[in-house]
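INFO  loader      accepted 1 record
INFO  loader      residues=479
INFO  predictor   begin
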Amino acid sequence: MKTYNKINPLILACILFVSGCKLTKPVQQNAAIKAPVTFEGQSDSIGIGSMKWSSFFTDKNLVALIDTALQNNLDLKMAVQRIEMSRSNVLISQGLLLPSVGAEVSGGGRKFGDYTMDGVGNYDTNFSGNIDANRKIPGPFLPDYFVGFRSSWEVDIWGKLKTQRRAAYTRFLATEKAKQAITTSLVAQVASMYYELMNLDSERSIIHKNIGLQQTAVETVKIQKEGGRANELAVQQFQAQLLNTKSLEIEIDQKIIETENQLNMLLGRFPQRIMRSTAIEQKFPQQIQAGIPSQILRRRPDVQQAELEMLANYSDQQAARLAFLPSLNITAMLGFNAFKSNLLFNPGSIAYNALGGLAAPLLNRKALKAGQKRTEAASIEALYAYNKSILTGFQEVSTNLKKIENTKKIAGFKREEVAVLQQAVTTSRDLFVTGYASYLEIILAQRSVLEAELTLTGVQKEQYLALIELYRSVGGGWE
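INFO  predictor   done
INFO  writer      dumping tokens
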């Protein structure tokens, strides 16, 4: 007896209608923020973001440190592994488009009830004169052996699997952009800590110089006391100031150790001394141009990553929408099948089949609807994240441009202030020797010049840190 399975066209039409009548269009992502044409006070020239980090930074010691960090930094290595995981997801999605074929070797058996169709049929068959000894059914336990191949394939008739593959590939590209974003941040962090160390070296040198001056002042006031022109209180005040300045030197030493250890952590190595220049070798551009905002923001890896995530979520929406449509599944089998092991590889034991069918969700589709809602919400969230990345990028560039400009002005005033206060120290010392100034005026002048020199060093450091942050914020440092 042969059985023929045919799909009724009316049933097929009903399946397609019920499955597809409620399909909704994906949420459109057409509300992205557009950046202004230029930054305030900037022309449309090519910005510093197009420079490679090895060309932008001119200090050889810093270049060597950045190169070490790019080779050994653990965050960067973890980002590489995330790329590999994302690459695997792409391969998985590609594999879903192809039939799966598996080799199978199986064996088993069962006992049919005596009062079932199979039980009666098997029992009665053995009495037939049309079968030979090899075809007699063993009983009452019926073995079943199979050696061969089984295959299954979901035919992508609506493009759902291709859409999923596109989403996986887009996320793979996003992980590469995430690695680039980590790279830009790493380059900026290494450079910032390097200049922080150089600034601490400058502060230590300033403090050490002032310790020498204050020691001279202590000796001078002691001589004045012996000559009856000063008292013990003046000596104690000068000694207290000297002790305070020496404690500042130790604080700077501790900060240097902490900063070196933090930098070594970025370099992926245990604490050790950081080789650095004695003077800043970084060339500060006379005129800094950030470039055209739209081009800069397109260059930033975090903006590109946010855009790719937005596209991936849009593909997820499309795949969730297509999940409501019928899926065409084809299964097939080819191999040897027998109920006697010695007959398993007999030519008569060859068995094969093929089956295709359409399956569509009709009832209880809440899980699919929930999945669609989730992808829509994720898609809108990705759009907002993309808009935020644009706002953040523009804000960072604008802030650092202004910071460079303003710190340059502040540094000019601070240099003049240091020069005036240094002259004031000399003047107060001369006046004290001649009796026209008190020891408190000398102490105040020395304290003021120390604070002004440290402030000037800090302002110069902030100026270079702003340049580094500008380089990062315009998308430089990842090539």
